[in-house]
Amino acid sequence: MENNKETNRRINKETKKEASMENKNIESKSTEGIKKTDKLLSIKEFSEMIDLEQSVLRYWDEIGIFPPALRNTDNGYRFYSPDQIIFVNFIKVLSSLKISLKVIGSIRRERTPETILRLMEKQENVLDQELKRLQEAYSTIHVLRGTIQQGMNVQDADQISVQPLGSMQITLGPRNKSGEQFDFYREFTRYCKYAKKNRINLNTPIGGYFESMEAFCKKPWAPTHFFSVDPQGKDNRPAGRYLVGYRRGLYGRMEDTAQRLKEHAAQHGLSFSGPVYVVYLLDEISMNDPSQYLSQICVACQPE
User: Fold this and answer.
1) For residue 108, which of 124, 125, 126, 89 has the smallest C-alpha distance?
2) CA 72 vs CA 19, 43, 63, 165, 223: distances in Å
3) pTM
4) Closest Cα partner for 40 from 73, 74, 68?
5) Is residue 271 part of a domain?
6) By the number of CB atoms within 10 A of the CB, which of 23, 42, 158, 275 ranks highest?
7) For the chain, how big is the Rg over CA atoms in Å?
8) Do residues 275 and 202 share a domain?
């Protein structure tokens, strides 16, 4: 009996020694409270459980944000504990809020309700700005689609006709400097600086505003103001019946457009009322050839 007990003790001792030797091949990493006695999963099993690519887990490990529970030092295989899914959820939630992995990594071990609340408040402000940017981008797309489609619908750029036009929101810039030596591009640049300073959207079409048909006929290359087509603009071109003409070519090149509009109005017994609006329907955004840019010129009219 004594010999049997001694034999069993020797066998148990050797078994433990072998297990100990095996465990030396497995290196413990930062475990977020994980115990070595937990059932471990291969990276493949863990990635399937959390529905995340293995490459993501490897990357998270490489940057130090989420190491495996244990690693085999011989072959580098990663092993994860099932309850590490809790920390994965922490990363996923914050990542879904557009919080960077760098920030997540910086607070991973020191997170408290207070630090997370401050982080949420900061990120809320970031997302507010992003929402504004997205709303402006959406509005820009809506405006560009409308003006480009209008331009594509023009079959004859020489046509002049009376058309009902809807209201169009715009933002008027400051009054341009007048004079015989009007510099179109200098004034245009001045408007762009003004718009940037006042956070006016410059990605939508920009047009020229003339105070009257008389002003347009006198200097058709020199608008009184520039304006942006702006869905949020405080100014507007009111809905009504307009005499509408078109002109192809680079900005400020109106040539004989004013005279042609006057002649059409005289032939059809029309009188002008209000300002002249020049809107560039097709410009560098949609046209490669400047000679094919298309502007729309419209002025409110009524029978005499």
Assistant:
1) 89
2) 14, 12, 19, 74, 75
3) 0.70
4) 68
5) yes
6) 275
7) 36
8) yes
Residue range of the domain that includes 70: 2-111
Asked if 207 and 244 count as a contact pair (C-beta separation under 8 A), the reply is no
**Residues 89, 182 within the same domain:** no
Do residues 145 and 276 share a domain?
yes
Residues 67, 163, single domain; the answer is no
| Whether the Cβ atoms of residue 239 and residue 163 lie closer than 8 Å to each other | no
**116 domain-assigned:** no
| Secondary structure of residue 266 in the 3-state scheme | helix
Would you say residue 123 lies in a domain? no
Give the residue carrying structure tokens 């590490």: 84
- Does residue 127 form part of some domain? no
CA atoms within 13 A on the CB side of 288: 0
- Check whether residue 105 and residue 184 sit in a common domain: no
- How far apart, in whole angstroms, are the C-alpha atoms of residue 101 and residue 61? 12
The b/e string for 116-138 (b: 16+ C-beta within 10 A; e otherwise) is eeebeeeeeeeeeeeeeeeebee
Q: Show pLDDT as tens, one digit a residue, over the chain (304 residues).
A: 444 445 444 434 443 333 333 333 333 444 444 444 458 999 999 999 999 999 999 999 999 999 999 999 889 999 999 999 999 999 999 999 999 999 999 998 888 999 999 999 999 999 999 999 999 999 999 999 999 999 999 999 999 999 999 999 999 999 998 766 788 889 999 999 999 999 898 999 999 999 999 999 999 989 999 999 998 889 999 999 999 999 999 887 887 899 999 999 999 999 999 999 999 999 999 999 999 999 999 999 999 7
Q: What are the beta bridge partners of residue 45?
A: none
